[in-house]
Specification:
By secondary structure, this protein is of the alpha/beta class. It is built from 14 helices and twelve strands. It has a seven-stranded parallel beta sheet with strand order 8-7-6-9-10-11-12, with helices on both faces. Strands 2-1-3-4-5 form a five-stranded parallel beta sheet. 40% of the residues are buried. It comes from Simplicispira metamorpha.
Length: 334
């Protein structure tokens, strides 16, 4: 029999079609938002799942899905996975690195520029009919060119933002990361490694691009915001929860820092109400990878992972090495 898969959210019809050539597919083209119990019920008899970052895959869910062998996430981040639980259950997890790197770096830069140059605020001002005359300080913001760009989290996307800043805008790029880049990569990015404290103190613009893990929770809170320059901008395109949004809203209100650009939020799609009331923040709904070609490439890579793995050829972009023993128990039970 053909393997059975569940596609948990609406996706490009062409990708549903392609998967249907390999599998018995249960799709969700109506884009219903399932509760964890509904997801578990639909996944109970499936061999594979196509997920997006908004379905939690944990031990309780896996226990209810004994046939499941692979969960293919259409996202580079996979903090929606309990990776240890997947590994223990003998389930392969995969993500979609590389195909979204440049698109996401473009967006990080766009959000940085919109924030520093107060574009959202300016647009609201004009639409509200408040533009009546020239004024010397009307919507005056911060410079991008020749300023100091700080990057926290220097993976592929962080490096893409560094290259844009250094090569395109003559920025002085500094970064902090758990592991320092090799000299050749640092040279390509024209980026200098600094301590986290120096990064916070020296950056005119600080961009967060680190993966969300338990240790990364509230990496930027009140103490870190207090170290930043009062003229600084903060951009988060990584994950909600890396920033303490309540502390950030308070720092923005007090002008402890100048402005923030946020594509991700704690508890999204809820947004901290204090942020919604502030003029000096640019808010976007988790769209950093959202161009048509890149979203298609991400969907294709998630599909390719399912096709390769369930076809016995191994995952293309695995995030774990599943334990073999539980998988054997499952196949003998089938
Ligand atoms: C989006 O946030 C992703 O992780 O791809
Ligand atoms: C994260 O995986 C990145 O590409 O920066």
């Amino acid at each position: 029999a053909r393997p059975r898969i569940l596609i948990t959210r609406a996706i490009f019809p062409e990708v549903v079609q392609r998967l249907s050539e390999h599998f018995d597919v249960e799709a969700n083209q109506a884009d219903a938002i399932w509760t964890p119990a509904e997801l578990a019920a639909r996944l109970a008899d499936k061999d594979g799942a196509f997920t997006t970052g908004s379905q939690r895959i944990d031990a309780a869910l896996l226990a209810a899905c004994p046939r499941l062998r692979i969960v293919a996430n259409m996202a580079v981040g996979y903090n929606n996975f309990d990776v240890e639980a997947l590994t223990r259950a003998g389930v392969q997890g995969t993500n979609t690195p590389d195909v979204l790197t440049e698109t996401t770096a473009d967006f990080g830069f766009a959000l940085l520029m919109a924030t520093a140059r107060r574009m959202a605020e300016a647009e609201h001002y004009l639409r509200a009919g408040q533009w009546t005359t020239w004024r010397y300080d009307l919507l005056a913001g911060a410079d991008i060119h020749a300023s100091t760009l700080g990057i926290l989290g220097m993976g592929r996307i962080g490096q893409g933002i560094a290259r844009r800043g250094a090569h395109g805008f003559g920025m002085n790029v500094i970064y902090h990361n758990r592991t320092r880049l090799n000299a050749a990569t640092e040279a390509q990015c024209r980026a200098r490694y600094v301590s986290k404290d120096e990064l916070l103190r020296s950056a005119d613009h600080l961009v967060l691009v680190l993966p969300y893990t338990a240790e990364a929770h509230h990496t930027i809170g009140a103490p870190e915001l207090a170290q930043m320059k009062p003229s600084a901008t903060l951009v988060n395109i990584a994950r909600g929860g890396i920033v303490d949004d309540a502390a950030l809203a308070e720092a923005l209100r007090q002008r402890r820092i100048a402005a923030a650009g946020l594509d991700v939020f704690e508890g999204e799609p809820q947004v901290h109400p204090a942020l919604l009331d502030l003029p000096n923040v640019v808010l976007t709904p988790h769209i950093a990878s959202a161009t048509v070609p890149t979203r298609r490439a991400m969907a294709d890579l998630a599909a390719d992972n399912l096709i390769a793995f369930l076809g016995g050829r191994g995952a293309l972009t695995p995030v774990n090495t599943p334990d073999a023993a539980p998988a054997h128990q499952r196949s003998s039970a089938n």
